[in-house]
Amino acid sequence: MSAAADKKLSAKLTLPDGKEANLPVVVGTEDEHAIDIRSLRNETGFITIDTGYMNTGSTTSAITYLDGEQGVLRYRGYSIEELAEKSNFVETSYLLIYGKLPNTQEREQFGTMLTRHSLIHEDLHHFFAGYPPTSHPMAVLSAMVTSLSAYYPDCLDRNSPTDLHIARLLSKVRTIAAFSYKKSIGQPLMYPKNSLKYCANFLHMMFAVPSEEYVVSPVLEKALNQLLILHADHEQNCSTSTVRMVGSSGANVYAAIAAGILALWGPLHGGANQAVIEMLEEIKLSGGDYKKFVDDVKNKRDNRRLMGFGHRVYKNYDPRAKILKKMCDEVLAHLGIKDPLLELAKGMEEIALKDDYFVSKKLYPNVDFYSGIIYRAMGIPTNMFTVMFALGRLPGWIAHWKEMVEDKDTKIGRPRQVYTGERPRKFVPIDQRT
Ligand code: CMC
Q: Are 13 and 21 contacting, i.e. CB atoms less than 8 angstroms apart?
């Protein structure tokens, strides 16, 4: 959606030479105000600088609304709390991608598309065999998603039907994620079962073995639906911005999504769920003294951070973490698991939320603080956690890619810079260099 300037509002910028620039103001539907600086350089010669995009809107978007001060998150106007309670992942994916909740017929058609496209080409199975058992599943997932473009070369044609690529991605990424796990533990691949719904099918592909009947637990199926919904979109985060950036060059949707998967991998982003469990395990192994760990974090010892805490945008409790904390208790109780890591996490949260270091910096638990404990209880290994995040975030990435390609005002993403290197100098032949 293109940015429409409010005709009644403008901002005046006084430049060092005393000249003034009048800049239009864009107002969003939730009354968010932005100064439109697109004409600034042409008119004044100045650019703006904003490392890490702390205060830069890269686009307007009608997909997700986030108020970090109030701890509010909505997809297409629906609150995350209501969606997590009443919707399921496939319906929420449709909502994000197509902008409305599906009616019965749309829901059925969408479900049929996902079922029909759940298999991956048999030749792709050989790719899994090419990776060493120590491979991180995110490396495998990103490479396999890029490879999908080779099997569907029509994606290189920008006019090829988008809905088909969307269904393929949503369905096949789930299959690839489960297959990469099966490969890593040396078990036979379990093919998707058409009779199962999206999340149940994933659990089947992950945990069923050919020699036994596997019955999907409805509690785990619901928990997985909720987990994926909570991860499904988060406006212009690092990976989503990457998807938009790559897509803005005209690269195909599989390439853009694969780039998003790679951006997600880092421990400051989606890799944090794995880092949280590794942090908690380390504390447990060294005797469980979490208070000392929190002290080390406050003293920035070895640049330690309390993983799963803090957020660029939330300066309040992350609404997703609130839901996940409750879900942790429910899932673990259902499975009859007492996980010492949960007690550690709760203890750390309690002291951090009373401590001036965290309070003054407005650091609260984020989505990654409790999600890993639930995945762990479900039997999902730690190195698969970020893959689970990717599976959840997929509809958000797709929705943003679609919104971007459908916006006639989209331009290739190309930030500027302020050069701080050498001034012009003459080349020195090697025998004259000191
Ligand atoms: N533990 C300890 N101190 C922290 C933490 C933390 N988790 N997060 C931020 N700080 C401190 C940081 O040291 C800095 O202190 P100072 O002003 O004294 O230098 C201050 O808070 C501001 O930090 P920042 O790194 O400038 O803030 P940011 O907005 O650039 O970073 C963040 C956001 C998420 C990268 C950061 O909070 C962090 O590293 N958290 C831990 C990793 C994590 O849990 N990431 C998952 C984010 S949620 C999932 C997602 O959407 O990606």
A: yes
Catalytic, 302? Answer no
**Residue range 136-150, pLDDT digits in tens:** 999 999 999 999 999
Which domains are delineated in the chain? Answer: 4-60 (2.20.28.60), 81-220+253-266+383-396 (1.10.580.10), 272-378 (1.10.230.10)
Q: What share of the chain is helix, strand, coil (3-state, %, to 5)?
A: 55, 10, 40
Average pLDDT over residues 291-295: 94
- Cβ-contact 233, 218 below 8 angstroms: no
Give the pLDDT of residue 133: 83
Q: Is the Cβ–Cβ distance between 121 and 230 less than 8 Å?
A: no
Q: Could you give the C-alpha distances from 156 to 149, 151, 361, in angstroms and in order?
A: 8, 11, 46
Q: Does the beta carbon of 268 lie inside 6 Å of ligand 1?
A: yes
- Tell me the pLDDT tens digit for each residue of 112-132: 999 999 999 999 988 888 898
Do residues 35 and 203 make contact, with C-beta atoms less than 8 angstroms apart? Answer: no
Tokens matching residue 173: 């990424």
Active-site hit among 368, 407, 409, 431: 368
Residues 6+ apart with CB under 8 A from 328: 342, 370, 373, 374, 377
Q: What token pair was written down for 175?
A: 């299959």
CA–CA distance, 369 with 286 (Å, rounded to integer): 20
Beta partners for residue 11, in sequence order: 23
What is the spatial distance between Cα 162 and Cα 303, in angstroms, rounded to a whole number?
44
**Residue 328: HSE in the Cβ half-sphere, 13 Å Cα cutoff:** 22
Closest CA to 324 of 344, 295, 345: 345
Q: Is the CB of 269 under 6 A from ligand 1?
A: yes
Q: Which residues on neighbouring strands pair with residue 22, listed in sequence order?
A: 12
Neighbour count for residue 288 (Cβ, 10 Å): 15
Query: Exposed e or buried b for every residue in 167-193, given b needs 16+ CB within 10 A?
Result: bbbbbbbbbbbbbbbbbbeeeebbbbe
For residue 111, give the H/E element and its range.
helix 104-116
Q: Which residues, other chains included, contact 121 with Cβ-Cβ below 8 Å and sequence gap of 6+?
A: 151
Q: How far is the CA of 102 from the centre of ligand 1 (A)?
A: 37
311 contacts: CB under 8 Å, gap ≥ 6: 68, 318, 364, 366
